[in-house]
Amino acid sequence: MKHIKKVILTLGVAAFAVGCKPSEEISTAEQFKKIKTETKEIAQDVKDYTFAQKAEFTEKMQTQLAEINKDLDHLAAKIEKSTDAAKAEAKPKLQKLRDQTEKLTKQLEEAKQASESTWDDVKAAFRKGYAELKDGFQQARQWVSDKIAP
After folding, report:
1. Which of 31, 1, 34, 38 is nearest to 124 (CA)?
2. Domain ranges within the chain, ordered by starting residue
3. Is pTM beyond 0.70 here?
4. If you write DSSP's letter for every residue of 82-121 in order, what string do you get?
5. 3-class SS at 40?
6. Most Cβ neighbours (<10 Å): which of 24, 66, 73, 112?
């Protein structure tokens, strides 16, 4: 079951990576290469970090959160250029993602402070929140792609 979750998360993030750049900007071969690279990086992200690797885990996740925030800002900028109706529909979606990001940031702080006895629970909660945020972000990106011209 644990491996299935890892595979699903990896594929979801790979799909996210494909949607990050319009196809006009990157050739299919380049997109595939980028997905392959990001999939390897994600596999590293989801490996089973031990308590001794806590600093490595939190640093890597901090970087991932920074990227998500950057992508969220980019998405918000696209939405700002859209119609009032699209903005009104997108506002709650963006707010939900920002709320999830804030919650995940707090969970990351908890992970940084975790003791050896709480490490596995804190790490699992962070990973669950991270997967939910990535899924929500993918859905928002798809919505923007469907509703707002590039």
Report:
1. 1
2. 1-47, 49-150
3. no
4. S-HHHHHHHHHHHHHHHHHHHHHHHHHHHHHH--TTTHHH
5. helix
6. 112
